[in-house]
Specification:
By secondary structure, this protein is of the alpha/beta class. 37% of the residues lie in helices and 14% in strands. It binds pyridoxal-5'-phosphate. The site of pyridoxal-5'-phosphate has 16 residues, from helix 4.
Amino acid sequence: MPNDKKQYGFTTTTLHSDRSKPIEHGSLHKPIHTSVTFGYDDARDLAAVFQGRQQGYRYGRQGNPTVSALEDKITRMEDGHATICFATGMAAIGAVVQALLREGDHVVSSAFLFGNTNSLWQTVAGQGIDVAFVDATDVANVEAALTPATRIVFVETIANPRTQVADLARIGALCQARGILYIVDNTMTSPYLFRPKAVGASLVVNALTKSIGGHGNALGVSLTDTGLYDWTRYPNIFDNYKKAVPAQWGMAQVRAKALRDFGATLGPEAAHHLAVGSETMALRLERECASALALAQMLEADPRVAAVHYPGLASHPQHALASTLFRACGSLFSFELDAAVDCFDYLNRLQLGVSASNLGDTRTLVIPVAHTIFYEMGAQRRASMGIAESLIRVSVGIEDTQDLLDDFRQALDAA
Ligand SMILES: *Cc1c(COP(=O)(O)O)cnc(C)c1O
């Protein structure tokens, strides 16, 4: 049994977290519990669980022991207070909207966003919630966009795919001073490279589909309450969820109003895959971040490449900030080829980089951004987000670094 008082390292903690609670039959992994419902010998216990007076499971949509074990793992990774998992990354961001926002509320979001999150904010803008997009690399832009109705500030740590780094600590201080909920999407850094709690985040999103699960074999997301936000300052909490101590109000409302009412529940099989994947995340990221830096440096030095975007490069506008905030600058970078090189031809010459849309996978994945994931938003909005038409996003996998360097260079040489 791991000693709960001792501070273990990141991987040790992740590996042994399931065993901090008794597991059936001495199993080392939390087993996959497929039961949809949970029976009680005493019907009064069932009632007590329903009324929140007793811990326990009732119906799979609102909770499952395999999923709970994963939630506990993520809570430890983020040094948080509580975590709720959902079926996909987008479901968690949607859950925030469903559970915590009301008509007339205002959101300030970074303009540099994962494409589907951008689309989600456009969707809710048509449902009476006002969203202001700002350049979040400078807190002054966030501050200027705040209104008395601003409930949430939403940023990504390193923006996908152009790698802008948000002014994370100053935005945290601003939100704290104004009592605004500060939501940080930590997917691009993961809790191994960065803990948003350190910059005052209230809620942390991690798309488990990416680095944490790491193998591209299961979708899922976590939403973690860091415990820093004072929920008594949040106007949209229903009286029903104010029965427990204030630290629990937010997650109680999210679990009921988003998970129970809308039902984007993570399945136990996916939770198992994601939990197993998470055991090797730190090892994978060490390799991936080193390879990403080596590739970015090689491409930046090549005259056939017009630009490389990676916070680990000294030429990146937020390089100094990224170096102080993150353990390493992540497994994702993007680059623009010289106009004489066709991006589709280049991608087709790669033998290891696979043209595909995921990221944080063990395999290196490449994608022509403007023609795929950022196609629907149109050229004007792409330009405002700094997305060149030739931009290629690279999610670096765990292949041997030299093999990747050779592959990305031969694809240029053949041009
Ligand atoms: C992929 C991703 C998401 C969404 O996750 P899904 O599991 O694909 O829904 C959210 N934020 C970021 C930064 C992502 O890269």
